[in-house]
Design goal:
globular, mainly beta, 19 strands, 16-stranded antiparallel beta barrel
Length: 416
């Protein structure tokens, strides 16, 4: 708590020198751009430095990993973009931090995204893309960057862990409920057990590897992808060499823009959610391809003057032969309002619901704990290169879990 307050005061005090810093960063931006062949070939290097801090009660919520109550998480992201004539575009993103998700782990350097995109026609009817990149489903992934997202944390569908593991299959529905802390006996200190083995229905922007096709046709746009891992897969399995292609995941989205204000979309995805290490635990006569995550989603966005609205609803089913289907729904509704050109505020309502499954000959129970979360946060953009966001979240969970908890977070972003 004290760290967050101190960070906000220091950054507010430094706002006096923001304009001078902004001019210097403009010069850096110009120096990191190059062009040739009368502008037909262009390249640009840019980046962001994010300093995030979190204050929470144990256990930490979602995809935050830490043993104490305060976590300081710095991150440097570098972006490379190149346009090679009118038809070829190349991009890459590398990050230096302490883990893909906020944690107190050892420093690491990763290549999170890289892809080449071919656009044969200038009207955008078809784009072909190959590499490692964010999923095409929904409307959060295209705006998940720290500069564009008004919040510090991801919406609930993208960071709430379930009782499903990707490294083993439970022998019964009751065991899966224990994995998700939804059983009759809560884990010690109400902690989420085996957090490093559980998966959400979508893991962040899902930078899995593969190929995609996208384009526009009148008021409609479309996108489809074939990736090496499912939407629920963890980041260390997204690289090409980390998982084989025996069980690809197929995802797609169709969007409709009736006018400049509205954007409506429908998404779907199917793919195996297990890693190869889970093979010894499968039911007799089944394979990894029989354990699939099937997801359907609807999204909507609306913009009018200084008001922006977003929403997504996902219905996900984790299929487990001999045990049945474990279904869950997760959604969020989000609003952002610009009070001034620099000052904005945002509010987001999130909820996830779990269905009941048979736990005995004449008994059933929900396989996960229903929960809701509300996120509130003001933000201030000092200049075109400097931004501060503060977020407070309240989450309430049914069942034997931690109950109602709070999370206070802040994020300072320097863009160059």
């Amino acid at each position: 708590m004290k760290i967050i307050a101190a960070l906000a005061l220091v950054l507010a005090a430094s706002a006096r020198g923001a304009l001078t810093t902004d001019e210097w960063l403009d010069r850096v931006d110009d120096a990191l751009s190059a062009s040739a062949d009368q502008g037909e070939v262009r390249a640009h290097l840019s980046g962001t430095f994010d300093l995030e801090t979190y204050h929470f009660a144990q256990p930490p919520p979602g995809l935050i990993y830490g043993d104490g109550h305060t976590l300081l998480d710095p991150r440097l992201s570098l972006f490379f973009d190149a346009q090679l004539g009118p038809a070829i575009y190349v991009f890459a993103e590398s990050r230096a931090d302490r883990g893909f998700d906020p944690s107190a782990g050892a420093p690491q350097l990763r290549l999170d995204e890289y892809a080449v995109r071919l656009t044969p026609w200038t009207d955008g009817r078809i784009n072909l893309q190959l590499g490692k990149f964010a999923t095409v489903i929904g409307n959060w992934a295209p705006r998940h960057d720290s500069w564009d997202d008004p919040f510090v944390t991801a919406p609930l569908p993208y960071d709430n862990l379930t009782g499903v593991w990707d490294v083993a299959v439970p022998r019964s529905a009751g065991i899966l409920m224990l994995w998700g802390n939804a059983g009759a006996k809560p884990a010690p200190n109400n902690a989420f057990p085996n957090k490093d083995r559980s998966v959400p229905i979508i893991w962040g922007p899902s930078y899995a590897s593969g190929a995609a096709i996208s384009g526009q046709a009148g008021d409609f746009d479309y996108a489809a992808e074939v990736k090496n891992r499912s939407l629920s897969s963890r980041p260390d399995t997204w690289d090409v060499g980390a998982a084989g292609w025996a069980y690809p995941t197929i995802s797609g989205r169709v969007g409709y823009r009736p006018n400049e204000s509205w954007n409506l979309g429908f998404s779907a995805s199917t793919g195996s959610y297990l890693q190869a290490i889970a093979a010894p635990t499968l039911a007799p006569g089944t394979g990894l391809g029989d354990y699939r995550e099937v997801l359907f989603g609807q999204d909507v966005s609306y913009g009018w003057h200084h008001l922006q609205l977003w929403g997504e609803l996902y219905e996900a089913s984790f299929k487990m032969p001999r045990l049945g289907n474990f279904d869950t729904e997760a959604y969020y509704l989000e609003a952002k309002l610009k009070f001034t050109p620099q000052f904005f505020g945002a509010v987001r309502w999130n909820q996830q619901l779990f269905t009941t499954v048979a736990t005995g000959p004449a008994s059933s129970a929900r396989w996960g704990n229903d929960l809701w979360r509300v996120d509130l946060g003001p933000g201030y953009r000092f200049t075109a290169h400097m931004q501060l966001k503060v977020q407070y979240s309240v989450q309430d969970q049914d069942g034997p879990g931690p109950g109602r908890t709070g999370l206070l977070s802040a994020q300072y972003t320097l863009r160059f």
